[in-house]
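Here is one chain, start to finish.
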Amino acid sequence: MTQSSALLPGSFHDVAHLEDVMTTPSPALTAELRALPGDLVILGVGGKIGPTLARLARRAAPQKRVVGIARFSEPGLREELTAAGIECIAADLLDRKQIEALPKLHFLERSLV
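Its structure:
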């Protein structure tokens, strides 16, 4: 048994419990995100893994600004993320004019793996 599997429950009570487990940051991730300068920006936050990634980032780096950018075509997702402390910006990332209109945020490319 690995250390990470020892931390997982035998089963999940419901989707909220699963989401809580998936968004609990490891100490290493927390340290890594705290060391990064600037804001955290998640492009495509409305996709399959985007909401979970944004919640994980918010929990790992509560002192940072977490900004999620997406079309937000799923009803209620933008409100859920906002309630979780994620700043949401609606934009179609395939539209050059919408990309150019986004606020100028500090982007840093760095692997967390």
